[in-house]
Design a protein that fits this description.
Layout: E1 3-6, E2 9-17, E3 24-33, E4 40-49, H1 58-79
Antiparallel strand pairs: 1-2, 2-3, 3-4
């Protein structure tokens, strides 16, 4: 599973073959660090992104998952902005 780091968020994204067909789905999970270095906080469990779209190749699904992961992190950062 490929991993991207956006600020302190760890973003896991992958493509998985959909059951019952030869098409692919894009999946994303987002984690944040915790106070215990042996653990991480699961902010977004692995879920399918672009659920209404099925991809014909694994590479297309991986590309969409990577783009969706960055968008999800950016949206979360805008929502939880710290203003001193």
């Amino acid at each position: 599973m490929p991993i991207k780091y956006v600020d302190f968020y760890e973003v896991n994204y992958t493509a998985e073959r959909l059951p019952g067909c030869k098409l692919w789905g894009a999946y994303v999970a987002i984690y944040a660090p915790s106070s215990n270095p042996m653990h991480r906080v699961n902010l977004l469990r692995k879920r399918r992104v672009s659920a209404d779209h099925q991809f014909t190749t694994e590479a297309d699904a991986m590309a969409e998952a990577g783009e969706a992961a960055v968008k999800l992190v950016e949206r979360r950062q805008r929502r939880y902005v710290f203003h001193p």
